[in-house]
């Protein structure tokens, strides 16, 4: 069929068949009744039939549609089904025919019935995660592999989507766009695509391809973990014999619509395809130009379709998608995508053989040139100084002689905070500090193109050399022989190589684009004659494997593929490629990471002395007094230990010694530590799945007073929960067992900071004390000012405990814990023997503990927890009104919980959604983890220096992800 007929057909409106006519047809020819639902289509009519016999799809097309093409589709369906690929079967009519030729309303039509594949398309998902991209790519590979030997006369057809016709079709359809920049861009993109494609054509293998394996035409269902699983592919209307790579190009073009504007996000699809059905180098090189050509064809055909059938809402909606695809497809240089695709498929560019070059600066030959480390671990950086504008250049200038930055180094100064985008950190160039007036000469023959003042590009045969900071540069357009003068350097000189003629590359690349850009912008080391390459980063995955092979596995790590974090600053953690993550997890680093006071204080005390509490030194008395100033009246004795576990373990021993009993009451679902005793009183199944069945007989868990999802709910539930404690105490009394004590977090931490029911502790403390027991407040997590409104959690309940335990934030990460109690309780333990902890209360620990308190005061961190924490809670609260998945916000200050539920009346925990949300937040630059026994609560406990801007970034990101499909 000639192209003009083809275009004419592409412009035909859909057949005119009403639903009642379609039902009549189904009754008459297939003996089926039921209800119909129209399914969108550009040129055909498709209906879903729900009948007592099952679900089907009725497809009706114009009568001039060649039957042999439809027969080819049916044959392919059968062929793929025989090879166990999930495609619909064709349902024969009563007559036994698979394809009916009919006439309705005077129109000749063809009709057929297919099985219906249950599920839905992924079209409405704004973003496809890499796993889904890969799955679609792999599926395309499986279909292509299966169709490799399929042949049918109906495959030899002229189809507008066949990329072989793209240039002619684009030329023919271009007039549909009005003159202007848009039209010029489509034309330019199509021309460039064809320039790339033309020399490859003769090397492209051909075969039968589906040519429409897209998000739209694949059917998916969620499994029990809510992961999308592919059910099959439909719509064989574009089946054709053409280039094999055309199939993947169609899939990839469709994926661009779900790539959030970044075309490199489609690489997992190509990688996965390559594993199943390896492509040749020519095919890999043809892929991107074919995708761009497809994008141009899509917008032009879409415009054409809308112009002939303006009432077709399906076509109008599609057109917007198609423009979006075009924008993404033309947002990066061709060479970058070509390189990235080759790399994804395991083919790297051949190295640039810069062998016969001469030195750019011969006078530097042999002189030492300092390599200035500007990477994430550089010792030049501390206390956030990398945020100062121009710091890298300052550090270069600070060298006494010639100095250079490093090519391929991920620079810390390029990081950015509270930002969902990857920062452009990888240096694709080298900066030099050389004596002003250093003579430059052309390292290879080329033509000088002057760019900005003091900058330009020497375009050689193999490569171009970009230079900035040149004085007395040659005239624009001057041809230079190798070794001819190229001007002189000013003090700072910057240079960059690029293998793509005419392309001015960026100076920095994001980590995900770095590999491709580094291949295009290789190191200028051969032109300099001294080492200017960064050491490659250690492989984070290999490091993780070493950890798993040596560090006992019960000590879990966050995330399956965690980034390697070696630096932190304030409330940010920075990976080795210079990406900053908002730290919403580290309740221990109250002051924030890398605090200079911590560095100074520990260095100073280490340089003087570090010993144990049996020696006499000032810090131990001073720190104990400082802690008692923070404690309620009547509390007058301090023990210093190294962790929350030790503090709670000691508290239990104090309660035992004081009461003379052993039996402890603890609250279900809590966590108090890992030692034998603290583990015994911990029943959080998130930490220990066997917790409920393995308690020793001295531990008596009582109901978790969870007013949100516990056995009793709301503020009125106090009496019900107290009744449960009464029952336990009555049982112990009846058994003549002496109660030793009761331990509880005064704000229910494991569930994300839920307040206990009003008056609960007052009543329980009274009852336990009446029986001679001691009441322990575990303030390890919630105490020390994090709650904003209260310094200690027990203040919220209006009680004073007998024993307070604390740790975590006390040392800002230095191992430090404490127990505060009354003298008579402390002395009860003394009666049993001495207490000694080798490092507990050491001079270094005490000095750090006091510095933490000082900084918290000086920097107003308690106020910050109250004000910024209050803003935080209000913003999270607003999510409850907006997103059905957000059930509640718990906590206060910088101890907050966002609980996700599938149903607000049953409170069904949204466990998988919470996991997906945390994973997605990480991509957006935020560390967040779930908590609670159902892992459906975001446990929000950031460093206390967290700013309002960080809070807004966090809440905006959560809202963005909630609006996506979780
Ligand atoms: C409430 C509570 N108590 C005690 C501990 C144990 O503290 P550490 O890990 O310092 O031993 C934790 C630790 O997460 C905790 O959350």
Average residue pLDDT: 94
Which compounds are bound in this model?
A: pyridoxal-5'-phosphate
What percent of residues adopt helix (DSSP H or I)? 25-40%
- Extended strand count: 38
Helix run count = 26
Major sheet size, sense and barrel closure: 9 strands, mixed
Structural class: alpha+beta
Percent strand equals 15-25%
Q: Low-confidence parts lasting 5 or more residues at pLDDT below 50?
A: none
- For this structure, the quaternary state is single chain
- Rg computed from alpha carbons, rounded to a whole number of angstroms: 35 Å
* Ends apart, CA distance between termini: 46 Å
Mass-distribution shape: flat
Task: Explain what the structure shows.
It is a single chain. The protein has 966 residues and is an alpha+beta fold. Helices cover 35% and strands 18% of the residues. It contains 26 helices and 38 strands. Strands 11, 12, 14, 15, 16, 17, 18, 19 and 20 form a nine-stranded mixed β-sheet that branches. α19 links the parallel β26 and β27 (699-702). α5 runs parallel beside α9 (281-308) and α20 (718-734) packs parallel to α21. The chain is flat and about 100 Å long. The mean pLDDT is 94. Pyridoxal-5'-phosphate binds at residues 643-645, 648, 671-673, 745, 749, 778, 780-781, 807.
Could you write a compact summary of the structure shown?
By secondary structure, the protein is α+β, with helices and mostly antiparallel strands. The protein is built from 26 helices and 38 strands. Strand 37 and strand 38 form a beta hairpin.
């Amino acid at each position: 069929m000639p192209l003009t007929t083809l275009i004419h057909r592409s412009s035909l409106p859909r057949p005119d068949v009403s639903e009642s006519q379609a039902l009549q047809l189904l009754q008459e020819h297939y003996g089926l009744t039921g209800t119909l639902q129209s399914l969108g289509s550009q040129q055909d009519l498709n209906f879903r039939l729900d009948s007592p016999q099952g679900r089907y799809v009725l497809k009706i097309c114009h009568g001039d549609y060649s039957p042999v093409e439809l027969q080819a589709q049916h044959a392919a369906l059968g062929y793929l089904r025989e090879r166990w690929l999930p495609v619909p079967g064709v349902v024969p009519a009563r007559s036994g025919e698979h394809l009916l030729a009919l006439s309705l309303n005077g129109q000749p039509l063809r009709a057929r019935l297919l099985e219906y594949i249950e599920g839905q398309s992924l079209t409405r998902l704004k973003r496809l995660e890499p796993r889904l991209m890969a799955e679609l790519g792999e599926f395309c590979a499986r279909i292509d592999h299966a169709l490799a030997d399929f042949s049918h006369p109906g495959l030899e057809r002229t189809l507008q989507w066949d990329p072989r016709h793209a240039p002619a079709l684009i030329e023919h359809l271009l007039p549909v766009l009005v003159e202007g920049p848009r039209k010029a861009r489509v034309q330019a993109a199509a021309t460039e695509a064809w320039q790339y494609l033309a020399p490859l054509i003769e090397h492209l293998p051909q075969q039968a391809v589906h040519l429409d394996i897209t998000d739209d035409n694949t059917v998916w269902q969620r499994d029990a973990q809510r992961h999308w699983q592919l059910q099959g592919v439909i719509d064989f209307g574009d089946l054709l014999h053409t280039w094999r790579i055309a199939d993947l190009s169609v899939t990839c073009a469709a994926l661009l619509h779900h790539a959030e504007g970044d075309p490199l996000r489609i690489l997992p699809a190509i990688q996965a395809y390559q594993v199943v059905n390896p492509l040749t180098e020519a095919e890999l090189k043809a892929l991107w130009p074919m995708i761009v050509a497809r994008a141009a064809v899509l917008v032009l055909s879409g415009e054409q379709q809308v112009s002939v059938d303006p009432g077709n809402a399906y076509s109008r909606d599609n057109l917007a998608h198609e423009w979006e695809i075009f924008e993404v497809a033309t947002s990066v240089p061709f060479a970058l995508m070509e390189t990235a695709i080759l790399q994804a498929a395991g083919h790297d560019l051949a190295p640039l053989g810069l062998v016969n070059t001469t030195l750019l600066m011969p006078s530097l030959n042999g002189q030492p040139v300092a390599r200035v480390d500007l990477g994430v671990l550089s010792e030049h950086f501390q206390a956030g100084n990398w945020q100062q504008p121009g710091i890298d250049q300052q550090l270069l200038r600070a060298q006494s002689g010639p100095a250079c930055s490093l090519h391929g180094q991920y620079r810390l100064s390029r990081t950015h905070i509270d930002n969902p985008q990857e920062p452009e950190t990888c240096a694709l160039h080298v900066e030099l500090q050389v004596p002003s007036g250093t003579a430059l000469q052309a390292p290879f023959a080329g033509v000088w193109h002057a760019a900005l003042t003091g900058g330009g590009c020497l375009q050689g045969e193999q490569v171009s050399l970009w230079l900035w900071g040149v004085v007395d540069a040659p005239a624009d357009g001057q041809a230079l022989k190798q070794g001819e003068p190229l001007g002189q350097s000013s003090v700072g000189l910057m240079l960059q190589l690029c293998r793509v003629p005419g392309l001015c590359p960026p100076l920095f690349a994001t980590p995900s684009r770095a590999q491709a850009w580094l291949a295009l912008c290789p190191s200028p080391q051969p032109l300099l004659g001294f080492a200017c390459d960064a050491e490659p980063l250690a492989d984070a995955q290999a490091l993780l494997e070493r950890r798993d092979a040596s560090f006992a596995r019960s000590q879990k790590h966050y995330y399956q593929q965690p980034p390697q974090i070696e630096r932190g600053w304030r409330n940010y953690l920075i990976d080795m490629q210079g990406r900053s993550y908002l730290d919403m997890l580290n309740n221990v680093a109250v002051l924030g990471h890398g605090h200079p006071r911590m560095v100074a204080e520990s260095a100073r005390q280490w340089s003087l002395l570090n010993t144990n509490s049996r020696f006499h030194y000032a810090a131990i008395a001073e720190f104990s007094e400082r802690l008692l100033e923070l404690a309620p009246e009547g509390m007058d004795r301090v023990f210093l230990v190294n962790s929350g576990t030790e503090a709670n373990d000691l508290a239990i021993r104090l309660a035992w010694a004081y009461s003379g009993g052993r039996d402890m009451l603890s609250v279900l679902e809590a966590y108090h530590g890992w030692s034998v005793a603290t583990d015994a009183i911990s029943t959080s199944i998130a930490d220990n799945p066997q917790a409920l069945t393995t308690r020793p007989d001295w531990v008596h868990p009582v109901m978790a007073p969870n007013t949100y999802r516990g056995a009793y709910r709301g503020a009125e539930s106090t009496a019900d929960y107290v009744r449960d404690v009464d029952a336990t105490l009555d049982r112990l009394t009846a058994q003549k067992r002496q109660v030793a004590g009761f331990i509880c977090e005064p704000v229910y931490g494991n569930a994300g900071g839920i307040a206990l029911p009003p008056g609960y502790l007052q009543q329980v403390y009274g009852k336990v004390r009446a029986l001679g027991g001691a009441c322990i407040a575990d303030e390890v997590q919630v105490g020390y000012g994090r709650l904003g409104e209260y310094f200690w959690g027990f203040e919220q309940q209006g009680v004073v405990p007998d024993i307070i335990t604390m740790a975590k934030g006390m040392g800002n990460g230095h191992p430090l814990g404490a127990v505060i109690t009354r003298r008579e309780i402390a002395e009860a333990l003394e009666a049993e023997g001495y207490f000694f902890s080798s490092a507990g209360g050491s001079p270094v620990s005490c000095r750090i503990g006091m510095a933490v308190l000082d900084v918290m005061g000086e920097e107003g961190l308690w106020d910050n927890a109250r004000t910024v924490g209050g803003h935080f809670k209000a913003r999270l609260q607003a999510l409850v009104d907006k997103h059905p998945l957000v059930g509640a916000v718990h906590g206060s200050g910088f101890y907050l919980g966002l609980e996700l539920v599938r149903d607000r009346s049953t409170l069904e925990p949204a466990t998988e959604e919470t996991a997906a949300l945390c994973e997605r937040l990480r991509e957006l630059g935020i560390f967040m983890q779930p908590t609670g026994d159902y892992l459906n609560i975001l446990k929000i406990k950031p460093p206390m220096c967290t700013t309002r801007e960080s809070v807004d970034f966090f809440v905006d990101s959560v809202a963005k992800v909630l609006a996506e499909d979780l």
